[in-house]
Amino acid sequence: MQYPVLKIQSLNHYYGKGVLQKQTLFDINLEIGAGEFAIITGQSGSGKTTLLSLIGGLRSVQSGSIQFLGQELSGASQQKLAQLRRQIGYIFQAHNLLGFLTAQQNVQMAAQVNNISMQTARSRSQTILQAVGLGDRLNYYPENLSGGQKQRVAIARALVNQPKLVLADEPTASLDSKSGRAVVELMQHLAQEQSCTIVMVTHDNRILDVADRIIHMEDGRLSDNNRFTSDTHQLIHFDS
User: Fold this and answer.
1) The 22-32 sheet, strands edge to edge
2) What is the domain-level CATH number for residue 20?
3) How many structural domains compose the chain?
């Protein structure tokens, strides 16, 4: 049976307890298929990052259902969540590179966490860094890389294990418009090569045309869920 990469049903989320409890997500229902590039937009505080962290298994599902590759995250054991997270690549606004490791070592470490041999990890890290245009920066430390180059290393790190899903939270926020677009187009190209799904949160309206689908959030709810046709790039509207 072919499952959607993500299937979210009746998802609600809360912060705090008792009289201080505040609901941040309201009845989220969403499916995202294999190979889609979906961008989530919305104002600060609309619930975008909370939703992304729940999808990635970084927060516990409190109410409702999230299925990743047909596997239920709600109620899953920590061991099961760890297994599922190994099939997800993460890219954040802050690149979170380790300053005492070179570009190649940062990427190689991510590969070795997945229990592959050092030789294979080294080979994979070199190949993916060459693919992101940093073949001549393998032995550079983060302090000697530009902002755009650091984010390219972060992309390489996210993709080195050939994940089924990449989650990106404001990956262009600290970049200028030219570098930001180059980073997103690079993500799109490499993900297509690996048949990988991307879900990205962004405030950057200049890159929305790269997406197959735009999902807009407002006050913790999905307010728009639009998919582009591949041939005309026209919008198709889906009820949330």
Assistant:
1) 22-32, 6-15, 63-68, 71-72
2) 3.40.50.300
3) 1
